[in-house]
Design brief:
The chain has about 800 residues and is of the alpha/beta class. The protein is about 35% helix and about 15% strand. It has 21 helices and 37 strands. Helix 3 packs across helix 7, helix 14 packs across helix 16 and helix 16 runs antiparallel to helix 17.
């Protein structure tokens, strides 16, 4: 028998099956080194995402070292975009050169894991994970159960227990085709730190079989209610619904898993197509199981810039040990040496930090990089051969190899790619992304969340965000609407472009305006502005917005407290005017949080309008938001009412692009036209408002909120509510006629306003004729009752 007829299992002491020996099968793995998304552009124009450094090494290196440490003997790395670059890296790193490579580290950092053979599979025209898995199946290289992992996962999980559980289950249940590894995390960690959406998983509580898997795109406001198939309760004795899980994108699969992709060309995405599709076709008998990793283990996927930031910090904070910079585990072929110091800072022995510079905490500085005197670094990763001048401030910055930063530069929560030049006193603001070779002019301040590349942005349709994680589509409302997509200025040869770029990199203030827009990169800058992404705050490297926690046990007490707050609102506002600087700051934070909540209510309600939800379904949506945000139904209703009134006006600057068509193109020419538009909306939604605004206090609060809307005060700034000032009394009358607001509530509001300061009586004066009419009508009713009693 030739050497190709039998294989020696490396490190495990096992021989592959021969004619007279039956042994344990070879453990294989498939690494998807392409996420089939554009989430990291323009950073990935020249470099594949799996080769972007996370900490001190590419994510692909972490994945391969971890697989080898788990005893995987044969790994197939699938790549599509930048396939040649990935294969070149694997060859240079030694993974392909000898056909097998020893892992440098194991779970305890001691080394000694089995050797692993690595092979590549490439397809330049593959556009989804489903197509990739079909191609792997056609190659007939997977013979046994295998580990499937995304090439952008960072983990130190000990997979032995999960493998053992999967194999034992497969021995009893041949149709158990997939085990999905999951990690228990809180909603804030999942959404605010890693940028993941809501994930709801329903499990058989006894076996951990997955019976429902549902992802939602964008946080609580966009998460519809979960609908479980009623028949499940007849099939499963005890269903456990989990909303505290994060998918690790580490799966243990049977060979039949690949066959199902070949048989179903509709399967493009692993999660939202295959998993959901399999669960919906229970009659075929295929089953999926969840495995919750140990709370002491770590696993997270780098699928957007927010998760890149979170995972980078986790590595520096040693959550992924032993895969941390100072252990020399990765990269194993050419490990760098780092000194681990107080504050979880890591310094290459070959870096130079000037006297007077401060490296505060959570930083890494690579070989041959320098930091000038007076500079301050916090939570920043500096690559190799980076030069940072004097008096610079870097906070949450990721600076790749070869970048030059001149004196006085500020970089805040931004990603700067290789060989970028930032001239003196420039400011790279929160959420910015600079592609390879970009030059930022001296003294220039970039707009937040800008993307700049030396390449002109391709057609927007080719740059849309697509992901295997969710099908969300969000608007540009969180982004600066002044961003533009730069077009090329004139026609220039590649030699002209290169010559001017070199001049801009080496000399400050060179005139580059014939090629690059000064408004995008400053005087002497080089690069084209790209249009902002549509994914919003959850996928940006900029700081996450704050969300208040929800305490279900305190719901009733909170409702009562909020009702009491409505009655004393004017007094509280007056008292706050005398508070100090600290209270002013607290008020600003309160306004910010309230603005976020108002917007979430508006977006949820507008989605109900857009999709034609029945009122009962809309109630479910809004009730979910109420519970998630720990608010009252009255809080929901008053912002719904303002959204309805706002629909009579043209779309304002905070309106998401997907909802613009719900608004009229022109403002109402007169009060009657505004009332006609409003009447059409209120006919449909008045019952819902009346259902939420039950008490007199709730209705008075709604009227006070309507005043704020008309004044464009606090959360309503820039929404155009000032156009409703003259129509205020007519709208008030309409709300009364449609039983949204009661007579008693209107009179209670008028009584409260009568005691306010003179400047705060504007709307009371406008509504006075209506108030008088209500009082007269009430007196007439009383007189009639008295006459009836006399008779």
């Amino acid at each position: 028998r030739t050497s190709t007829g039998r294989r020696i299992a490396r490190g495990a002491g096992m021989v592959a099956k021969t004619d007279d020996i039956a042994i344990k099968p070879t453990l294989q793995a498939v690494v998807l080194a392409d996420s089939f998304t554009n989430a990291f552009k323009p950073l990935t124009e020249a470099t594949p995402k799996v080769l972007l450094p996370i900490g001190h090494a590419p994510s692909l290196e972490y994945v391969l070292e971890w697989l080898a440490a788990q005893g995987v003997e044969e790994t197939y790395v699938f790549s599509s975009c930048h396939a040649e670059a990935i294969e070149g890296y694997l060859r240079r790193a030694g993974w392909l050169s000898s056909g097998a490579k020893d892992a440098a580290g194991s779970k305890d950092g001691s080394g000694g894991a089995a050797a692993m053979a690595v092979h590549t599979i490439a397809s330049t025209n593959c556009v989804s994970a489903g197509e990739a898995l079909r191609l792997v199946d056609h190659k007939h290289v997977i013979r046994n159960d295998f580990v499937l992992i995304s090439g952008d996962v960072i983990t130190n999980v000990d997979l032995s227990a999960a493998l053992k559980t999967h194999r034992e289950r497969r021995a009893k249940e041949k149709l158990a085709i997939m085990t999905v590894c999951m990690r228990r995390v809180g909603a804030d960690v999942r959404e605010l730190s890693y940028g993941d959406g809501n994930l709801t998983v329903a499990l058989d509580a006894e076996t951990n079989r997955i019976v429902h898997y549902e992802e939602h795109g964008g946080g609580n406001a966009n998460a519809p209610g979960v609908n479980l198939d009623a028949s499940l309760f007849g099939e499963v004795k005890n269903i456990r619904v989990r909303t505290d899980m994060m998918d690790c994108h580490i799966d243990i699969c049977a060979p039949e898993f690949l066959m199902l992709f070949t048989d179903n060309f509709d399967y493009q995405h692993i999660r939202r197509d295959f998993i959901v599709g399999t669960l919906n076709e229970r009659e075929l008998g295929n089953t999926l199981y969840a495995y919750e990793i140990s709370p002491h283990d770590y696993a997270a996927r780098v699928h957007n810039l927010r998760s890149y930031d979170a995972v980078s910090r986790d590595i520096l904070n040693r959550w992924a040990f032993p895969y941390v910079p100072d252990t020399r585990v990765v990269p194993a072929n050419n490990p760098e040496t780092f000194r681990h110091q107080f504050g979880n800072n890591y310094f290459s022995p070959a870096c130079a930090v000037a006297v007077g510079a401060k490296v505060e905490k959570g930083c890494l500085i690579g070989a041959h990089s320098t930091v000038g005197a007076g500079s301050v670094l916090t939570h920043s990763v500096i690559g190799k051969n980076v030069n940072i001048g004097a008096n610079c401030v870097l906070d949450g910055a990721y600076i790749l190899d070869g970048t030059r930063i001149s004196d006085g530069v500020k970089v805040t929560r931004a990603f700067v790619s290789e060989n970028v030049v930032i001239h003196r006193n420039a400011h790279v603001t929160s959420g910015c992304v600079l592609g390879t070779g970009v030059v930022i002019g001296a003294g220039f301040t970039m707009k937040p969340k800008s993307r700049v590349s030396l390449k002109v942005q391709p057609d927007l349709a080719d740059d849309d965000y697509d992901s295997d994680d969710s099908a969300e589509s969000t608007g540009l409302a969180d982004l600066d609407m002044e961003h533009i997509r730069d077009e090329a200025l004139g026609t220039h040869t590649s030699e002209q472009l290169h010559s001017l770029l070199i001049s801009a990199q080496n000399t400050e203030g060179v005139d580059t305006s014939a090629i690059w827009h000064v408004s995008s990169v400053g005087v002497g800058g080089a690069g084209y502005m790209w249009a902002p992404r549509e994914e919003g705050w959850r996928h940006s490297i900029a700081p996450a917005r704050v969300r208040e926690p929800y305490d279900c046990a305190q719901e009733y007490a909170e409702e009562e407290a909020k009702r009491g707050h409505a009655a004393t609102r004017a007094v509280a506002a007056s008292a706050s005017a005398t508070a100090g600087d600290q209270s002013d700051s607290d008020e600003d934070e309160d306004v910010k949080r309230e603005s976020v909540f108002q917007r979430e209510v508006a977006e949820t309600f507008l989605r109900c309008v857009k999709q034609g939800y029945a009122q009962e379904n809309a109630v479910v949506e809004l009730q979910g938001l109420k519970m998630a945000e720990n608010r009252t139904f009255a809080d929901i209703a008053r912002y719904v009412l303002m959204t309805i009134i706002g629909l009579t006006l043209p779309a304002h600057g905070k309106t998401s692009r997907e909802n613009i068509k719900l608004y009229p193109e022109t403002a109402p020419a007169s009060t009657p036209e505004l009332l006609k538009r409003l009447r059409d909306r209120l006919k449909e939604w008045a019952p819902l408002l009346a259902r939420f605004l039950k008490s007199e206090d709730d209705q008075v609060e709604a009227l006070l909120t309507f005043e704020e809307f008309c004044l464009e005060d606090e959360v309503f700034k820039g929404m155009g509510g000032g156009a409703c000032v003259s129509s205020f009394p007519k709208v008030l009358h309409m709300l009364y006629d449609m039983d949204v607001i009661s007579e008693e509530s209107v009179l209670a509001w008028a009584e409260e306003k009568a005691e306010a300061e003179e400047h705060d009586k504007k709307f009371l004066k406008l509504a006075q004729p209506f108030i008088d009419w209500l009082n007269d009508a009430s007196e007439d009713d009383d007189s009639s009752e008295d006459e009836s009693d006399d008779e």
